Task: inverse folding
């Protein structure tokens, strides 16, 4: 069974399995949760049981004749996709009792495409089930949402992510930081592991925090230049955000990442760390507005120095 391949998501799995056991399969589902946490695999496992076909490899490889999986690398799905769907929707299943149509990243459907899909969902074929995957309901028409069963997915816990990703090449500091930055998404964690020099980020975090502690503005300006020139700035700021979040919660993983530099936060009050987090979050937004990364980083460091030493 494909269900055995799925890490976590017990609440969602149990709800879907109960419907399968009771023979109450709905005509439309919305799987809601951030990208890279396993919604698609759950959709395939559910589809395989709806199709009642033990040829699981056909489902995994998107080759089952009664399973249609719509996805795109483009920014959006146009109405042409739904019109193509409409042309074949009323044909009977060829090998199973039902057909299943999975739309991955449903938030990419344009308004025109969603309106066309709505017409299908208003009068759905009896032998067809739709599963729409999305990271947010905010981009799905409320009229579509009202016609679907909502299945919510939470981010994976760090133990589950670690089971799915090979972190053997990392030291403890880098592994802990990686899992925090991934925020429970296998896709995000895999991408960071492949693209980010975590060793360099950990060392830079220590240098920056020590310079902030010593109020060494000259050193901070030098580090700003280095970060702007050699780092993924957004990823570095996200790492700063992680460190402050851990400090705010008194989480022992803080020391796992930055070692004795974690003493920087000893005795610091909750409100100060909250203010620092806001500076970092606003700084990440400023990166999208301004051309100069270095000036943005310098501004963030000056503001942090004032917050931490207030």
Result:
């Amino acid at each position: 069974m494909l269900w055995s391949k799925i890490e976590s998501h017990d609440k969602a799995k149990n709800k879907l399995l109960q419907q399968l056991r009771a023979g109450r399969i709905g005509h439309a589902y919305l799987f809601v949760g951030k990208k890279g946490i396993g919604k698609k695999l759950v959709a395939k496992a559910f589809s395989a049981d709806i199709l009642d076909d033990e040829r699981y490899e056909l489902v995994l490889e998107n080759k089952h004749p009664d399973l249609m999986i719509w996805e795109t690398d483009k920014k959006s799905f146009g109405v042409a996709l739904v019109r193509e769907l409409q042309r074949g929707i009323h044909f009977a299943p060829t090998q199973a009792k039902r057909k299943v149509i999975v739309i991955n990243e449903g938030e990419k459907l344009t308004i025109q495409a969603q309106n066309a899909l709505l017409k299908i969902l208003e009068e759905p074929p009896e032998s067809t089930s739709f599963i729409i995957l999305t990271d947010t309901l905010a981009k799905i028409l409320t009229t579509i949402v009202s016609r679907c069963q909502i299945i919510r997915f939470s981010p994976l816990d760090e133990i589950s992510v670690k089971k799915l990703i090979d972190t053997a090449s990392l030291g403890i500091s880098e592994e802990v930081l990686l899992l925090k930055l991934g925020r429970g998404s296998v896709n995000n964690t895999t991408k960071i592991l492949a693209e980010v020099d975590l060793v360099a980020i950990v060392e830079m975090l220590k240098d920056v925090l020590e310079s902030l502690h010593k109020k060494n503005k000259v050193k901070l300006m030098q580090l700003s230049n280095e970060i702007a020139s050699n780092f993924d700035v957004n990823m570095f700021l996200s790492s700063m955000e992680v460190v402050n979040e851990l400090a705010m919660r008194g989480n022992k993983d803080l020391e796992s990442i930055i070692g004795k530099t974690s003493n920087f936060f000893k005795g610091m009050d909750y409100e100060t760390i909250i203010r620092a987090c806001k500076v970092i979050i606003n700084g990440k937004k400023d990166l999208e507005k301004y051309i100069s990364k270095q000036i943005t980083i310098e501004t963030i460091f000056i503001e942090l120095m004032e917050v931490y030493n207030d």
Q: What stands out?
A: The beta strands are 28-32, 67-70, 99-103, 128-134, 149-152. Residues 270-289 form the longest helix (20 residues).
